[in-house]
Design goal:
The complex is a heterodimer of chains A (268) and B (125). Chain A is mainly alpha-helical. Helix content of chain A is 81%, strand content 0%. The longest helix of chain A has 31 residues. Chain B is of the alpha/beta class and 125 residues long. Classes of the chains: A mainly alpha (268), B alpha/beta (125). Chains A and B meet through loops of A and helix 1 and helix 5 of B.
Chain lengths: 268, 125
């Protein structure tokens, strides 16, 4: 318990900004600015951020509400998935030497699946509180299932990789932008209905916007499009990950606001 | 349970919150019982007949609005003051609860437990 409380005190918005800046400096300066890309440590840092978020979700929350618990469990599941994606990226590119394009495409698709998962968590709450139809939740479950199946097939079957359409990365990018728009609309509705989500939304909305930037850089990485303007692949990889670190930092703080909301929960 | 003490029934599925209510109401000298579903809430009302009900609106089975409707239907219980507490912050939810007979509608993130108890005391004089 003492460790958890120390952890809560240590990782505030201010310290996370400092951590992010320190990471950027470190990544850009160590080993001529390519060390973290060449060794894959850039992915390990993302996995650490995911780990921090999972500890935050796991630790005690002021609210023991059954809907709130469900929301956190769904989030936990998808953060676990995101952590595994970064481990997969590291192992795929640096240990098992898998096809770069397959790994990058899988990473892009995984970010989208993760966003859909977080969207599903929000819909779970909103549907119950507002007695809304389950249609959006069903659509999300279908999309997540199909996406996950596609992800598995891409990684186990070279035949499947060959039949993938060339427009797929663009489609994933467009899907990410559309999901982000829906998520922001959903959060705005939720915070209007449930004030407990108000402070959380202040961090989650910017996180979603930054996630879209990260997705664009992931796309640029897979197409090497930025090489033409003098941005190397490793810099591109860094930019995508700097956005991801910022996203995860914001989500970490946002989830902290849900952990200890105001009002009745201050006594918990 | 002491016969002379005023009785408070807490209906909230959140066991942490219920525990805090129990402790704080008991400290103020009230007899307090908490249950965690609308169904159990209605049973306890019939058996125990509280002087005040603290009612969470979002409950796993029968929600707080249902409990308010049931209380309103039964004349023997319709006079029991109910403080509706919820995470729902829209005016329509507040109006709905008040129309069904709740004396007050309080949003969980806007009031501390002490403030809720202070408001409850008005109905327990």
């Amino acid at each position: 318990m003492k460790i958890i409380s120390l952890f809560e005190k240590l990782f505030t918005m201010r310290t996370l900004v400092v951590f992010n800046l320190a990471i950027i400096l470190l990544v850009e300066l160590v080993g001529g600015g390519v060390y973290f890309a060449e060794t894959g440590l850039v992915h390990a840092i993302a996995a650490i951020f995911v780990g921090l978020i999972m500890i935050r979700i796991f630790s005690d929350h002021a609210s023991n509400d059954y809907i709130f618990r469900g929301f956190l469990k769904i989030q936990l599941l998808f953060f676990l998935f995101l952590g595994m994606v970064h481990i997969y990226e590291y192992l795929g590119l640096y240990v098992f030497m898998l096809n770069d394009e397959v790994v990058e495409l899988s990473a892009m698709a995984s970010y989208l699946l993760w966003m859909l998962g977080l969207f599903f968590a929000l819909e779970f709450v909103y549907r119950i509180y507002q007695k809304k139809s389950a249609l959006m939740s069903i659509v999300l479950v279908v999309l997540i299932s199909v996406g996950f199946l596609g992800l598995v097939l891409v990684n186990i079957s070279s035949t499947f990789v060959q039949i993938l359409p060339a427009w797929l990365p663009v489609a994933i990018l467009v899907g990410t932008v559309i999901t982000a728009i829906f998520m922001i609309m959903s959060i705005l509705e939720i915070r209007g209905t449930m004030p407990i989500f108000k402070e959380y939304s202040y961090y989650v909305i910017p996180a979603i916007i930054l996630l879209v930037f990260a997705a664009f850089f992931e796309y640029f990485e897979s197409t090497h499009i930025l090489n033409s303007i003098g941005i190397s692949d490793s810099q591109n990889l860094y930019l995508a990950h700097f956005f991801i670190y910022a996203v995860l930092s914001l989500l970490f703080v946002g989830l902290g606001k849900l952990k200890k909301p105001r009002g009745i929960y201050t006594d918990m | 349970m002491n016969e002379n003490k005023r009785k408070v029934l807490v209906i909230d599925d959140d066991k942490h919150i219920s525990k805090v209510y129990e402790m704080k109401f008991a400290k103020e000298g009230y007899d307090v019982v908490s249950v965690h579903s609308g169904e159990d809430g209605m049973k306890t009302v019939a058996e125990w007949i509280p002087d005040l009900i603290i009612l969470d609106i979002m409950l796993p089975d029968k929600d707080g609005f249902f409990v308010l409707e049931e209380l309103k239907k039964k004349t023997e219980f319709s006079g029991i003051p109910v403080l509706a507490i919820s995470n729902l912050g829209q005016n329509k939810d507040q109006e709905h609860a008040l129309a069904l007979g709740a004396r007050e509608y309080l949003v969980k993130v806007e009031y501390s437990v002490e403030e809720i108890i202070d408001r409850a005391k008005k109905y327990l004089l």
